[in-house]
């Protein structure tokens, strides 16, 4: 049986999971793949990390570069993360014609061009199933299963931390701060949760989904990104009264010559499957022109689910190398230069429907002024909700609009901000009613 | 660019969809696969079927065998269905070393051994993504994405007709007969719906899922199969009162040395994602030991969704042939002879919890007699519900049990049948509470 020596760079949470599958599932993998995947090198800055793996002498090293450059190790798994050391290692391995497996969405989203060029020049190849949606085969589905489809749209719950926080607020009436603290205690959220709650992690994943769906990359800095930290239990409750759950969604749509790509808290109707995705689970809805609506659901993070995706890539590589081939698939789904380049639709031109909550002095005529400002921009209201009444202080006025253009909404809100009885900038949450 | 001549056998609903994607999406496929997939032969018994395709002269024939045997056509798509002509054509093509694509679950479930042997001898290969779950990449996920996982269990809603009927009964209080008639009008159900509503179509798909999950085939005739035709709106309503939806599930579990494989109406708690799969949609929940719970959801039938799956196979084959390889994957997930053979767990030894509805004369002591018979078999009751009361005639007594063994339940029901005040054989519906 052919043997495939593999190098593992980074033995943290996911790395240890990958090592465990390779070591403990060797027989299963031989039975399914027909290749003996051998852990030929493992690198970490901390020798303690691999203590429990029982590695043979000489396998462990603190020098990751030596593995990336080892001519006897044709496959390298990068699980160090970040954009410095990891970038150098990946580019080095690709330039030497190796197969590289990574979960590093931040790196791919920022350095895809450099990665693709280096891989092409060096005849290397990149696999990255674990970069989006943990154990779910999102990359495989987009690159392979949907090969005959034009992807019309994709909607993803791609960050378990955010979804856990939103679920706890919705179901248990926690505040954002309480829910975040709990997510940290449970180990879902990092000590510094910025990348997660800001929506940036979701944006990294969206950039990859966009490229695989439409064949065009969007600049990370051009993606509209709004995180979850300003959501209040009040808005989550009002949303439920209207029949919606609030989820942090990554959204992309093929609008003909242009692409939508945005990340923001989004109201999703109860009967949309994404509204039922709770806790730390992830899901992606992909709409293909032939398939129609399709959903993948699963654990988007965690040691073993993410390791499973890495091993799936490893097995693909092993099958190819056993047949003597490499680069069976274009790295980013479309062969370079073959997809029609598409521009990003500016956020101001996006059309969707909206939830707006105003804090207003309870005086006659307030609603009429708000409605007037909206009407002037051709924004029509689908329902209004005025919750509770206090004798003093501002009262919430909540309304939903029909589809409107983002620029018109912003213009209306600017005008409404000048109404003297409006206490503060209104809360705005976008709604996705449709599937395309 | 390399060219791949493809033969299409059968130009019905799905066949026409496949032809349309190949003809209309040629540019997209070239851009993603780097191969020119060319419709080199199309066979149907009816020349009118291909009228609108604008095929070049000489491409259409009524002689499917000539295409299956054509040395210039290395890839054959079988969409004729059935187990006679289709079987001959598939075996012929495989014996000639061709790549064969099919959606024919009935044939695979019954003739897998013959197919595998013929393919091995002739160096042919079989792809069958469209055989289970329409557009969803169920086969790809089991064969490839989960390569490093032991599959613990799988639960599938795999027949759109049945799910449509059950949804209409649950949501719109139709009778089974009304819902079936409607499904036929809408084109979801065949004129002869037996294969669908009997659960047999689901069993064909389950046999494939079992083989790809555990590496062992089960005989179709050994699978416990119960259809939906005896379900009543009353039971569907009672189930809802207890917090459950009734779905026709294909279930398989890895029980160590043995496999569970069964198809029957199943009560699923509301908060299980499968309970939210409505209308003609399909879904599969797969639990891997590394991935944990994963769900795929999508259209399980229909022209374009099924055609999308066929084209996904075609593109896989095209990528391989462009690299000069074949048989990159074992046909049925495990390399022949490498998986531990596992026996089917007899239905009598299956353990689950149960819904039981008795029609009893409204006399004192009935419940005590029922409970006594259950207790004697160590079956404990988790809740009882006695709905409505009539002055005359039988009243329904509904109860849910904790986990019990099927054989014990049957023994208890035999004893209960002898109680004089029990009007008829009780209704029994199995419940799946857990995810494994």
Summarize the structure.
Chain A is of the alpha/beta class and 436 residues long.
Write the layout of secondary structure elements.
Two copies of one chain form a homodimer.
Chain A: E1 3-9, H1 13-24, H2 26-33, E2 36-43, E3 60-61, H3 64-69, E4 75-78, H4 85-95, E5 99-102, H5 105-122, E6 125-127, H6 138-145, E7 151-157, H7 160-172, H8 176-185, H9 194-197, H10 200-214, E8 224-225, H11 233-241, E9 244-254, E10 258-269, E11 281-288, E12 292-299, H12 303-322, E13 343-344, E14 351-361, H13 366-376, E15 381-386, E16 394-401, E17 404-405, H14 406-417, E18 427-431
Parallel strand pairs in A: 1-2, 1-4, 2-3, 4-5, 5-6, 8-10, 10-13, 10-18
Antiparallel strand pairs in A: 7-9, 7-11, 9-10, 11-12, 14-16, 14-17, 14-18, 15-16
Helix pairs in contact in A: 1-12, 4-5, 5-10, 7-8, 13-14
Tags for this model:
homodimer; 436 residues; alpha/beta; twelve-stranded mixed beta sheet; six-stranded parallel beta sheet; 14 helices; 18 strands
What is the residue-mean pLDDT of chain A, rounded to a whole number?
Answer: 95
Poorly predicted runs of 5 or more residues of chain A: none
Instruction: Tell me the major beta sheet of chain A.
Output: 12 strands, mixed
Inertia-based shape of chain A: elongated
CA-CA gap between termini of chain A: 48 Å
Q: Structural class of the helix and strand makeup of chain A?
A: alpha/beta
Helix content range of the residues of chain A, please? 25-40%
Q: How much β-strand is present in the residues of chain A?
A: 25-35%
- This entry's quaternary arrangement is homodimer
**Greatest interface by residues involved:** A-B, 64 and 64 residues
Number of helices of chain A: 14
Please provide the count of β strands of chain A.
Answer: 18
Radius of gyration of chain A from CA coordinates: 24 Å
